[in-house]
Amino acid sequence: MVDLSDSNTETARPIHDSTARAAKARTRKRVLLWSSWIGITLLLLVSMEVLNAVAGKLVMPSPVDVVREGVGMTLDGTIPRALGQSLTVLVLGYLLAAVTGIGIGIFLGGLPFAGRVFDPFVNAMNSTPGAAFIPLIIVWFGLYTEAKIVVVWNAALFPILINTAAGIASANRDLTEMAQSFGAGRWSLFWQVMVPDALPSILSGLRIGAAISTVGTVIAELTMAQSGLGGLLVAAGNRFQMDKYFAVVFVLMALGTAITASLRYAERRLGRWRVSMSEDH
């Protein structure tokens, strides 16, 4: 009688060793990545401190002073209040850009002739600096929240639109032909094959649009009725309070990083299932 237990153990051991090595490799990469981030951050902080000691606080504030001002502005409600105002403009403008950008992008990508007709106009608008439209937006919408939302919408719209249209237009032909061979209608083919296949491209556009929305929010708050984090930047800059200025800048950096990281995580999670027919050939 043949004892299969030893052979099964010998077969399972290489698999277990390979999995353990892969886990250790991922851990090493994660540790290296975090170590690099921490090292770069410390290098920047030391550089700020050195420049402050050489050139003075008017040129570069000390990181300690920046942290002190940031904590004080947070505890007295200045930063939370400004952050709430900025987030209102950012979120509403970004959501409006996401809805319109995805909708128009699906239309232009799903209808090739319409895409060719409107492509020059989309490229012309995308290549025009958003700041060029600010005087017109002020005339149409005023100086307050509505106008700022429009500025953010205009900034984030085109990356979302262009990525969506490109993803729809370049849908996997093998998938579409397979769906057609099973009798899928044009409507089902569009919504159940082409749009899901374009999801990674759509998510990439949303991530880029979110980063640009942060910039658009600050620009709107700098050029229109001063409020939010942009208003704090103007107030601190006009008084040459560089410690307060950099405290607000760090808040903006943290906000942009958090938004981009969240969307990148969603992009990885939701894009994993995309079928790559090239692997089968």
List the helices and strands and how they pair.
Elements: H1 4-55, H2 63-75, H3 78-110, H4 112-127, H5 134-141, H6 145-169, H7 173-181, H8 186-197, H9 199-223, H10 228-238, H11 242-271
Helix pairs in contact: 2-11, 3-4, 3-6, 3-9, 3-10, 4-6, 5-6, 6-9, 7-8, 9-10, 9-11, 10-11
Describe, in short, the structure shown.
With 281 residues, the protein is mainly α. Helix content is 83%, strand content 0%.
Question: What would your notes on this structure say?
Answer:
The chain has 281 residues and is an all-alpha fold. The chain has two domains: 1-60; 63-275, MetI-like fold, CATH 1.10.3720. Helices cover 83% and strands 0% of the residues. It is built from eleven helices and no strands. The protein has helices at 4-55, 63-75, 78-110, 112-127, 134-141, 145-169, 173-181, 186-197, 199-223, 228-238, 242-271. Helix 6 (145-169) runs antiparallel to helix 9 (199-223) and helix 7 (173-181) runs antiparallel to helix 8. The chain is flat, with a radius of gyration of 25 Å. The two termini are 44 Å apart.
Q: Which structural class is indicated by helix and strand composition?
A: mainly alpha
Distance between the termini: 44 Å
Order of helices and strands: HHHHHHHHHHH
What is the global morphology?
Answer: flat
What composes the largest sheet? none
The CATH topology annotation of the largest domain reads as: MetI-like fold
- Average pLDDT, to the nearest integer? 80
Q: Please give the CATH class of the largest domain.
A: Mainly Alpha
> Regions with pLDDT < 50 over 5+ consecutive residues?
275-281
Number of helices: 11
Report the helical percentage. Answer: over 70%
Rg for CA atoms: 25 Å
What portion of the residues fall into strands of 2 or more residues? under 5%
> Total number of β-strand segments?
0
Assign the CATH architecture of the largest domain.
Orthogonal Bundle
State the CATH superfamily name of the largest domain: MetI-like
